[in-house]
C-alpha cells in the first residue's frame, strides 16, 4: 500500500501512524510546506509557501489555502503520471492542502484530519469577557470554514481527536467524522519516583519537592498564562518553599501578541509582582525534559480556552502529575473533578491558587487522583491502540475502494466506525497542540 500524507508542517499528527505503517511495509509519502520532524523511510515532497498572508487586518485567508490545494493536487497528479499513484491520501483539512485531492485522484480514498471548525460562539472566539467578535473576524472564520467544508464534502471519511472537536463541525457532516485520537506514548510518559530535573542555576528538583509546573507551546492568553501568573503570585506569598517552573516560548501560537513589542512573560512578571527568583522560565525544551518535569511536578496547572486540547496535558496526566485544569469543554471531556484531577474556573485565579496550595500542603490526598489520571490516558489515548484503530480504518477504506463501480462512480456506504474510542482539541492559525 502507498499512502500520501498532506500536512502544512508535517508530519504533525500523522507521525506515529506513519512510523507504524512504514514498519509494516507500507510506502509513505509526505507532501508538506515545511517538515517539523524527520521520519525514517518517509519520503518528503515539499511545495513552496504562498506569499499571501492568511488572516490579519485586510488579509485574505482563502488565497494561500487555495494555492496550497492546487500545489498539492499538482504533486499528486505528477505522482500518478510517474506510476507512483497512491492507494489513499490522508491530510489536514485546515490549510487547503486536501481541497483538490479528489479532482487529481477521483478514485482514491481520501481521509481528512478535522481539527477545528471556527465558530463565533462556544469556542475560542469571544471566550474572554473583554473580547468582541468583529464583523471582519466573522468573515475570516467563514472563509476558513469554507475551505474545510469544500474539502469535507468530498472526503470518504474524517477524523477528529476528540468528541468536542467533532461537535464543532456542522451536524450534517458529523456522521462522516470518526472520533479517534492520534495517541500518547504512555511507555515514555509514565510516573518515575526517582525522576529529577536540573534547573539552569544548578538546583536539582526531585519528586516530592514543592514544584508547580506550567507548560504551553508559547506563553499566552489562549493557554491561560496570565491567570497562571496571577495565581502563582498568590501561591508564592503563602508558600515560601514553592518553586514555579514554566516551559514555553515567548512567541504567539494563538491570538494576539501584547502591545508595545513586549512579551506576555515580561508583562506579567511586572504586573503580578511575582519575584523573578521564584520562577524559572525554561523556554521550549526537548520532549524528554518536559516529561521529566511532569514527573517531579507537585501541581501541574493547565488552562485553556475552549480550543484544541494539548498533547502535553495528556502526557502530564500519564506521568501522574497532579493536574489542576480549567473547567472548559475540551478539558471536561477528559477530567472528572475530584476523580482524576481538579477543575477550576478559567478566570478565577483565587480558586486556581487555592487548589495549588492544597496540592502542595497535602500531596498524599491526591495520590488516588494521580493514579486515576494515568488510567484515563492509558485506557483512552494509549498510542498503540490509537494507531491500530487508525490503521484498521485505512485498511477498511482501501477494501471499499476495490468494490465494483456503478455508472455513477464508486459504490459508497455509510460512515466507518473503528472501535469504541469516542474520547477527546493546535491551533488557530498554527494548528499544533502543546
Could you describe the 3D structure shown?
By secondary structure, the protein is α/β, with parallel strands linked by helices. It has 2 domains: 2-183 and 382-410, Glycogen Phosphorylase B (Rossmann fold, 3-Layer(aba) Sandwich); 196-381, 3-Layer(aba) Sandwich (Rossmann fold). Helices cover 35% and strands 17% of the residues. It is built from 14 helices and 17 strands. The strands form 4 sheets. A 7-stranded parallel beta sheet has the order 3-2-1-4-5-6-7. Strands 12-11-10-13-14-15 form a 6-stranded parallel beta sheet, sandwiched between helices. Strand 5, helix 4 (135-152) and strand 6 (157-160) form a beta-alpha-beta unit. The longest helix has 20 residues, at 62-81. It starts with a strand and ends in a 24-residue tail after the last strand.
CATH topology of the largest domain: Rossmann fold
Structural class: alpha/beta
Largest sheet descriptor: 7 strands, parallel
Taken together, the total number of domains comes to 2
**Level of helix content?**
25-40%
> Nearest-angstrom radius of gyration?
22 Å
The low-confidence parts are 54-58, 404-432
Mean pLDDT across all residues, rounded?
90
Distance between the termini: 32 Å
The CATH superfamily label of the largest domain reads Glycogen Phosphorylase B
Percent strand equals 15-25%
Strand order of the largest sheet: 3-2-1-4-5-6-7
CATH top level assignment of the largest domain: Alpha Beta
> What is the tally of beta strands?
17
Amino acid at each position: 500500500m502507498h499512502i500520501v500524507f498532506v500536512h502544512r508542517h508535517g508530519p504533525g499528527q500523522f507521525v506515529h501512524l506513519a512510523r507504524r505503517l512504514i514498519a509494516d511495509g507500507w510506502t509513505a509519502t509526505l507532501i508538506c510546506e515545511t517538515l517539523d520532524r524527520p521520519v525514517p523511510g518517509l519520503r518528503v515532497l515539499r511545495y513552496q509557501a504562498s506569499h499571501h498572508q492568511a488572516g490579519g487586518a485586510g488579509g485574505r485567508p482563502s488565497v494561500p489555502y487555495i494555492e496550497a490545494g492546487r500545489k498539492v493536487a499538482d504533486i499528486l497528479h505528477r505522482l500518478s503520471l510517474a506510476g507512483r499513484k497512491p492507494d489513499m491520501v490522508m491530510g489536514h483539512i485546515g490549510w487547503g492542502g486536501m481541497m483538490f485531492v479528489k479532482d487529481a485522484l477521483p478514485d482514491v480514498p481520501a481521509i481528512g484530519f478535522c481539527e477545528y471548525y471556527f465558530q463565533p460562539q462556544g469556542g475560542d472566539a469571544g471566550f474572554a469577557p473583554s473580547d468582541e467578535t468583529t464583523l471582519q473576524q466573522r468573515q475570516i472564520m467563514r472563509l476558513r470554514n469554507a475551505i474545510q467544508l469544500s474539502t469535507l464534502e468530498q472526503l470518504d471519511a474524517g477524523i477528529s481527536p476528540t468528541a468536542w472537536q467533532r461537535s464543532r463541525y456542522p451536524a450534517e457532516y458529523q456522521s462522516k467524522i470518526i472520533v479517534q485520537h492520534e495517541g500518547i506514548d504512555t511507555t515514555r510518559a509514565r510516573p518515575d519516583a526517582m525522576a529529577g530535573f536540573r534547573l539552569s542555576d544548578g538546583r536539582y528538583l526531585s519528586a516530592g519537592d514543592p514544584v508547580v509546573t506550567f507548560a504551553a507551546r508559547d506563553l499566552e492568553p489562549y493557554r491561560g498564562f496570565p491567570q497562571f501568573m496571577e495565581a502563582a503570585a498568590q501561591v508564592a506569598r503563602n508558600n515560601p518553599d514553592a518553586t514555579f517552573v514554566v516551559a514555553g516560548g515567548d512567541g504567539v501560537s494563538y491570538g494576539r501578541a501584547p502591545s508595545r513589542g513586549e512579551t506576555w512573560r515580561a508583562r506579567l512578571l511586572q504586573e503580578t509582582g511575582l519575584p523573578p527568583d521564584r520562577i524559572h522560565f525554561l523556554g521550549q525544551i526537548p520532549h524528554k525534559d518536559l516529561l521529566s518535569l511532569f514527573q517531579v511536578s507537585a501541581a501541574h496547572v493547565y488552562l485553556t480556552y475552549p480550543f484544541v486540547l494539548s498533547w502535553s496535558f495528556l502526557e502530564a496526566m500519564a506521568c501522574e502529575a497532579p493536574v489542576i485544569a480549567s473547567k472548559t469543554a475540551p478539558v471536561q471531556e477528559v477530567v472528572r473533578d475530584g476523580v482524576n484531577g481538579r477543575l477550576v474556573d478559567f478566570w478565577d485565579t483565587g480558586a486556581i491558587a487555592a487548589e495549588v496550595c492544597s496540592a502542595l500542603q497535602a500531596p498524599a490526598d491526591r495520590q488516588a487522583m494521580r493514579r486515576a489520571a494515568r488510567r484515563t490516558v492509558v485506557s483512552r489515548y494509549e498510542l498503540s491502540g490509537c494507531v491500530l484503530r487508525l490503521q484498521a480504518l485505512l485498511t477498511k477504506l482501501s477494501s471499499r475502494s476495490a468494490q465494483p463501480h456503478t455508472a455513477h462512480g464508486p459504490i459508497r456506504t455509510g460512515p466507518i466506525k473503528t472501535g469504541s474510542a469516542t474520547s477527546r482539541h493546535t491551533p488557530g492559525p498554527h494548528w499544533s497542540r502543546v
